[in-house]
Amino acid sequence: MCSSDLVVGVIAVIMIIIGGLRYITSGGDSNNTKGAKDTILYAIIGLVVVAMAQVIVKFVLNKV
Fold it and tell me: Which among 10, 13, 19 is positioned nearest to 38, based on CA atoms?
């Protein structure tokens, strides 16, 4: 695992935690709830992109 992947992973986990805290403290307000859900969703998408980038790079390097 590359150091940049580790940094992105840590940032994504922090963003998931922040999104969870925003969701808990939204007080039922639909705008705040939607923003919190979006934060969590985008952090998870970021983790998937980083994981897939590693897989793609390893695949290409093994084929070359």
Answer: 19
